[in-house]
């Protein structure tokens, strides 16, 4: 009882940390997709801000559904827009609310994971509060599950699917009658969010089918469950297809309702001709090796050997070790009893503990490893079966200190340091652009970013109609290209009300000194760690370490 009380208190503290750290907010910038797969697009559509639309959301190449961005970032931005329009909050729309409001919604959604773990732990023979502490204390939950990734939604849908397939009537005789419809809805929604969801859904769906076959003697009941699943999945898919088709063909519902009967038929025919099915476009693009090479290729074992360890640490290693042991034991048993055992082994239905959870973990991992482009965030949905497996009796207990240190390091690295100066930099620039002096006397700002992640323009809070702010993203441009661009901008620096800012990590600060220009102001934002331009260890040990771990905002001197 005392241990359970300690675990409950610890989980409550970690849950408060998750919410509080979201509101601070976190300064770490994990990957451009956390902005450009939802918030950036919705800020342009709903708040009419200057943004950069990624190619997946262009009508010429629609590869992402708009439904989930609308339901998450879209709802968040609509709420702060409504508050400002109603004069409840005169300046609700600013860089802080633009960042935090969708993150806060995702943080609230992240507790679906906690609910799922609490519901599933008894079913899979795990300690509920031990599993909850492992989940809440993981930096994956604290950092990744509070960000606006499609992978985050994928993980939440996977958790709900596991709850549904694991739920049975108290007698244990049959699957829940309502599960079939909900499982169909979640499977289709997950597929439209990310087609890779099918890799995560495969084992839960096979397990669910096994439960039905095992508990139902009537073939009619089995067919009834499958028909409900298919019908609800098809209906959900039709909702997504309709919404995406309207969005990507730039047609509004208002125009549709205002048409007469004859023009309505024409609209329906036109929509049919331009029907948008984003998952198929996504698969068509990603199954092309040349396209994947544009985003980076990795060895097929990267998920197993690198990404799993990077996300889950010792828990991933222990799962691999247990997996090999169970596989060896299972093969030996299979060979011994094959002569007297009729039918397939009951690994999925008869065994409700560790072997099945390991399949829930490793089967998606194996499918995702078939693709050459492998990023750590692709694996974050696997935290649920992993913590359930790790929270079983006598497992992971002796590794407590290592687990704590690993997650502290991960939270510090990804929640604070990684590209950690870029978001505060945009906050700083937004205040500068919208300062009273700038408002009373219009000025032009050119913001040149180099060797940073793609800056989300929406955080500058500049309307599409305002032309006084120009953002130039030089990405990882070489020294010659960077200097040419800066010198070209400096030579055209004739406007007295113009300002040119160059934003660059401290690790490449010396490059700018070779460009033959001078600066009137320097602002250092600390900390900022660029893994693409990492600091050198000897420099870190010198007195210049703060500069190496910072992001510079350099204002070009017009009298250079």
UniProtKB/TrEMBL annotation:
Membrane topology: Multi-pass membrane protein
Enzyme superclass (EC): transferase
One GO CC term, this protein: endoplasmic reticulum membrane
Residue stretches spanning the membrane: 92-113, 128-146, 153-170, 182-208, 229-248, 304-324, 356-372, 378-397, 404-429
Pathway the protein takes part in: Glycolipid biosynthesis; glycosylphosphatidylinositol-anchor biosynthesis
One family name in Pfam for this protein: Glyco_transf_22
Subcellular location(s) per record: Endoplasmic reticulum membrane
One term of GO molecular function: alpha-1,2-mannosyltransferase activity
EC numbers on record: 2.4.1.-
Keywords noted in UniProt: Endoplasmic reticulum, Glycosyltransferase, GPI-anchor biosynthesis, Membrane, Signal, Transferase, Transmembrane, Transmembrane helix
InterPro entries: GPI_mannosylTrfase
Signal peptide per UniProt: 1-22
Gene Ontology BP annotations: GPI anchor biosynthetic process
Entry-linked PANTHER family: GLYCOSYLTRANSFERASE, GPI MANNOSYLTRANSFERASE 4
Family affiliation: Belongs to the glycosyltransferase 22 family. PIGZ subfamily.
Protein name: Mannosyltransferase
